[in-house]
Amino acid sequence: MKEHYKTICTKLDSGQNLKLVGCKHGDWWNKSDFSLREKEYNELISWSDILVLEQPFLAEFYEEPFSKKISKIVYNQNKKICVIDPQNEKTDKFHEESYEKYVKSEKFCMAIEEGNGNLISICDCKQKNNGPFDYIRYIDSMSDFWWKISFGESDWRNMRIAKGLEEDISQLNAENILAIHGGIHTRPIHFYLKNPKFRETKLRRKYSELEMLGEKGIKIYAPVKCEEKQEQAWERIK
Q: Which one of 17, 111, 217, 225 is least enclosed by Cβ atoms within 10 Å?
C-alpha cells in the first residue's frame, strides 16, 4: 500500500483518539478502492464513534459513489457523519480562475516567499495536469517542508480540515474519531493539526479570498428511517 493510503493514528489536544485514513475515492467515472478495502473500512467504522468525511465535488456524501458506500456502513451502525471540508462551487471556481491566470502567463509559478505555487517539478506549468495548483502527486516521498510552501485550494482545504478537527470535532461527545479523506490529504492534514500557529498564520496571510468564499463551521448528519426502496437516509442536525 502506498504511504499516503496508510492510516495515521494520533490524538487531538482534547485527548480523543483520531485515525486519519487515506483512501482512493475515485470520482464519478474512475474506480475507488472500496471493493479492495471494504473489510478494513468496516473495521475502522466499527472502532469509531463518529466519522468525518471529505466533501465530494458538487454533491453530498450520500450521493457520490465512494462516500455513499462508506456512509451505508455508518448508517447500518447507527452513527453520525460530520463534514468540515470547506470546499464548494465558489472555491472551485476561484481555483480554476487562478490556475488559468498562471497558464496564460506561461511561467512556472514557484514563488516560495509569496506562496504562489507548489513545487512539483521545475517545468512550465502548461505541461502539468492542472499545473502548480494540482496538489503534490508524490506525497508519500515528500517531507513536511512542502506543506510550508504549497499553495492552492487543496492546501487551504487541508488547513481548514485540521482546524475543524481541533476546534469543532473535539467538542463532540466521541472518544474515537475516524476521518476518511483522499490519500493526498492525510499527511498535510496531520502536519497542520500538529502545527496550529503556522496553520493560522498561513490561513490569515495567504487565503483571505478562499476564507470568504468557503463553507464555515461543521455539518453533522444523523441517520433517519428510510423511505420505501431507500438504502439510507440522513438528516442534517447542525
A: 225
